[in-house]
Amino acid sequence: MLLLSRKGALEAKLPQILARCEGWESCGIRICTDLQGLRRSEQVEHEKINLVMGNRKASPVTKIGVYSLLLNNGLMLDLNKCCYSPEMARNIISFHGLYKQGFTFLFDNNNGAINVYYNDVFYFKALPCDGVYEVVNVVDNLGNNVLYIDSSNSLDKASLWHCRLGHVNKKRIGQLQKAGVLESFDLKSDDSCESCLLGKMTKSPFTGTCDRGEGLLDLVHTDVCGPFRVATRKANRYYVTFTDDYSRYGYIYLIKHKSETFEKFKEFKQEVENQLGRNIKMLRSDRGGKYLSIEFLDYLKECGIVSQLTPPRTPQLNGVAERRNRTLLDMVRSMMSRASLPISFWGYALETAAHILNLVHTKKVAKTPHEMWTGKVPNLDHIKIWGCEAFVRRETHDKLEPRSERCIFIGYPQRSFGYLFYRPNDNVVFVARRGVFCEREFISQGDSGRQIDLEELQESSGEGTSNTIDQPEEETPVEPIDESVPPRRSTRVRNTPDFYYGYHITTEGDTFISDSTLIDLNEPNNYREAMAGPESAKWKEAMDSEIQSMYDNQVWNLVDNVPGRKTVGYKWIFKKKIDMDGKVHTYKARLVAKGFTQTPGVDYDETFSPVAKIKSIRVLLAIAAFHDYEIWQMDVKTAFLNGKLAEDVYMAQPEGFVDPKYPNRVCKLEKSIYGLKQASRRWNLCFDEKVREFGFSRSEDESCVYVRASGSIVSFLVLYVDDILLIGNDIPTLQEVKSWLGKCFAMKDLGEAAYILGIRIFKRQE
To answer: Which UniProt keywords apply (predicted)?
Structure first.
């Protein structure tokens, strides 16, 4: 409250407070008790302004100026019109004054604290104490060296923008300052950024030059990078880049297979030619098969585009595209090494890095790629540190619920305004217009401790795949090189229904594909490759286990070959089973029949076999989540071996396991094995017979969903090939079903379901 004294002097009535540290009170006036940090001050006439305490004691103001308060996160807070009163017990910061300066405030409902932000940057926290708020993170004994304060702030801004811009070279930040895109601040700092040291490495440059494009789209560079060991959330394992040589502006597309390159080029061509009103004249690429297909080459000829292919084993001549790959992956490694996100988020980091590279200068072009491409100077006000936490406003009708939620910033949507956020609680990515970003806290918490080395993400490239070369420019070894690529587009947002409150059910992408199908693990293609490779002992053990299963289930008998009867071929299939983190835990060998060699009407007739629809599984999971049912998972070992054949089928003895006593005999199959035309049908009929014996009835609308009800006890059984979901509300009943299945088939108990057909299931213990 402000009062006017009888003498006409300005007085401020303040509460009685203790002398501990800086305080924050809403009286509308700022007070400092020492001259350290007070700048541009003016002398006040004696007793012109008095501050009146709660005990009616007056304290005169002798000076008014700008007080610089250094916070322990490196930021400096300038308090304008601050009153110097040496008789006051402590410093006072005005709530209203900060609000007028543009500061924003976020209240913590847990401890009553107030978090103070400016331009989405966290400044300090104030805790309630004795009727006022205390600022707890202020540097003590600041001293009189104002230059030191300014230098500390500049160094902090340099690090802040270095992180915001995806750890690009400081020279590029300097170029943005010269162009007026960024404010001026000191760039002299320690270049040993830990994230850059973890993510970047260089070799000697390749000496050689190539002709440059003289205008937009005169020359476009392209390359495909991948495959990556861990797929993105949308099941992508590769990405393809298209870069304009003249402006260094480029596009990036995440793809599932290299064969999609042609379609992405057509999409890229149509967009850029429509936007610029110019035509692509030349396309430079390596000699990968994706660029040498007849369809691709014919399309280039039809459009009048010259296909310029680099000589074999000379990736340096496609250096623009190759360096772009390396720059992007360097940035992704650096960004992800600090963020606490799953590796599958590398796609979002890649798109963000590509977006940033379009906004910063390159060594070959005087202006930024964005300005060369659009004619407009880029605006960096929207750039935030990738992976930092952010508070995003949430829509709720409950007046007692929090108005915001903690999320993680993961990128910029291409087709809309705002930001991409990840909500860890329900594994959802969504777009929001704005948020409060905790960038300072993110920097101060340091590296996440993960060694995001892209050997962890990227496999060794095969034939036709880009081998990213180390061809740096003449810059600091830990910094990225000069290239730029834009993001592809925003991802589709999926919202989880509110009634999934008991179980959190999330999908990895639009398609339901097992992680094991998305990862190339160098699996052998045949028996000879398995025995010649370094993992031959493990593959031999897996084959022994498979053959033993055949013997235990009495799958075949050795008989003399029937004259005139054709034998069915066979093949060894080798697979590595991985967990959700992509680590190999089991080596699996499967002996399968070559069903395409069977003769219809002779060794097979009907082949149809039902399988549970994914929609049915999701409906049952929703029911289980709503009613808090148990969800158990089981796996049938060698399921197809349980089906008895009705036809006479003969197969050659498998390689590596030919009986030395009867090498000329063949296997007469008594039971179905994987690969036979009728194998799935025979197994389904066998399973249906067994579960009906136990009292289950088949759903009329879904052939692979069974239900059993007795009073209030209900049990569901879902079959998806050889995976079984057991859902119910009574644990003893479910255990009885499990025991019955164990007697009928060789089962593997997987416990509570956690992952089924691309759906992850999390249960809250509430």
So the answer is: Hydrolase, Metal-binding
411 CB burial (10 A radius; 0-12, 13-18, 19+):
buried
Do the beta carbons of residue 337 and residue 447 sit within 8 Å? Answer: yes
Question: For residue 282, what pLDDT is reported?
Answer: 92
Task: Name the strand (E) or helix (H) holding 462.
Answer: none
Q: Give 214-232 pLDDT, tens digit per residue.
A: 889 999 999 999 888 888 8
Q: What residue ranges of the chain are covered by domains with CATH 3.30.420.10?
A: 147-381+451-493
Q: What is the pLDDT of residue 579?
A: 63
Classify 724 as helix, strand or coil: strand
Query: Which segments within 208-319 are labelled E, that is strand?
Result: 220-225, 238-244, 250-255, 282-285, 306-309
User: In degrees rounded to 5, what are phi and psi of residue 369?
Assistant: -55, -35
**Banded model confidence at residue 59, pLDDT cuts 50, 70, 90:** confident
CA–CA gap between residue 383 and residue 190 (Å, rounded): 23
d(CA 200, CA 195): 9
Instruction: Indicate the Cα dihedral angle 137, 141, 145, 149, nearest 10°.
Output: -10
For the chain, count helices (H), then strands (E).
16, 38
Edge-to-edge strand list for the sheet holding 713-720: 697-698, 705-710, 713-720, 723-728, 630-636, 747-752
Tokens matching residue 404: 């915001």
Average pLDDT over residues 447-453: 52
Please state the three-class secondary structure of 697-709 as a single string.
Answer: EECCCCCCEEEEE
Residues 6+ apart with CB under 8 A from 183: 177
362-405: pLDDT as tens digits: 887 888 999 999 999 988 888 999 989 899 987 766 777 777 88
Local structure of 209: helix, strand or coil: coil
Element spanning 459, H or E: none
Task: List the 306-309 sheet strands across, edge first.
Answer: 250-255, 238-244, 220-225, 282-285, 306-309
- Locate 430 and state its tokens: 């969504």
Beta strand pairing call for 306-309 and 121-129: unpaired
Q: What are phi and psi of 91, to 5 degrees?
A: -80, 145
Average pLDDT value for the chain: 77
Retrieve residue 154's tokens.
Answer: 């500049």
Quote the percentage of the chain above a pLDDT of 70: 76
Pairing status of strand 250-255 against strand 503-507: unpaired
- Quote the DSSP letter at residue 672: -
Given this structure, which CATH class describes domain 147-381+451-493? alpha beta
Whether 416 contacts 490, CB under 8 Å: yes
With residue 134 as reference, give the H or E element that holds it. Answer: strand 132-135
Cβ atoms of 474 and 361 within 8 Å: the answer is: no
Q: Do residues 371 and 480 make contact, with C-beta atoms less than 8 angstroms apart?
A: no
Residue-wise pLDDT for 719-756, tens only, equals 988 888 999 999 899 999 999 888 888 888 888 887 77
* Alpha-carbon gap, residue 645 to 605, rounded angstroms: 11
* Alpha-carbon Rg for the chain in angstroms: 34
Instruction: Please tell me the distance from the alpha carbon of residue 630 to that of residue 713, in angstroms, as a whole number.
Output: 12
Q: Which residues pair with 407 in a beta bridge?
A: 390
Q: What is the DSSP string of 330-356?
A: HHHHHHHHHS---GGGHHHHHHHHHHH
Reported confidence tier of residue 326, pLDDT bands at 50, 70, 90: confident
DSSP string, 399-453: TTS-SEEEEEEEE--SSSSSEEEEETTTTEEEEES--EE-HHHHHHT---S----
* Three-state SS at 271: helix
Other beta carbons within 10 angstroms of residue 474's beta carbon come to: 7
The residues pairing with 2 across neighbouring beta strands, listed in sequence order, are 12
Task: Fill in the amino acid letter for 459.
Answer: E
Cβ distance 162 to 193 under 8 Å?
yes
Sheet holding 58-60, edge to edge: 2-4, 10-13, 49-52, 58-60
Percentage of the chain modeled with pLDDT above 90: 16
